[in-house]
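Deliverable D5.2: sample structural annotation.
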Amino acid sequence: MRAFPLILTVAFLMASCSPMTPERRPVTSYPTPYSPTEAPLVGALIDRPIDGGTRGAVIRESAELTQCMAQLTAARVTFRPTPDKGDPQACGLAAGGVLGPDMGTVARMAPGDVEMTCRTALALSIWRRQSLEPAARELLGSDVVQIDHFGAYACRNVNNGGVSNRISAHAQAAAVDVAGVRLRDGRRISLKDDWFGGDEAEQRFLRRIRDDACRIFGTTLSPDYNAVHADHLHLEATETRFCR
């Protein structure tokens, strides 16, 4: 009779030492801070082709200065932050700095070292790499070596104070006015001379970069808008939505 309990004890010990299938536990899903279409794009945005989500990505990735600068730094775009100044609702600059050379491209801004918001610098860098330069190579057969502009920061109302009392995006350094480009082969393409007066390739080039800008910037104004913009593209990196 004593042997029966002993046999049970030995069997129990052997079973406890044998491998067992681990217990399956239910998988708990936790909410993530971003959906797949809103994933952080640090280091990728400036080198990603323009699509329907580019403008929203610019707004999102420039919501914080450090986040915006991470995008620029990862793409080798020189940007030196500056202290906030003035009144961001009138004339002033917040979350901004000085845009220097883009070391990932050959095109340079003229004049250089342009003061603007980081959001404007991010949008401009995307436009430069994903639209301006490839469009010039495709349609004009030459590289852009210089981007001529009229500046970004200017304390004034819209239309240079014409009939409007509304403050301009330039008053917050949130817009840049591009006048044209210079090509490696020596040609100069300008909004003033070539939007209507250039050959077919030059006109296609200027309209291509305008149309692409509309997918990146909040407001894009061209010579098609009014006489005030006859000689430049107004590229405004705000949450507005207007393209003409």
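Annotation notes: The first helix runs from residue 3 to 17. The helical segments are 3-17, 54-61, 65-74, 118-140, 191-194, 200-213.
The annotation will be released with the project's public dataset once the embargo ends.
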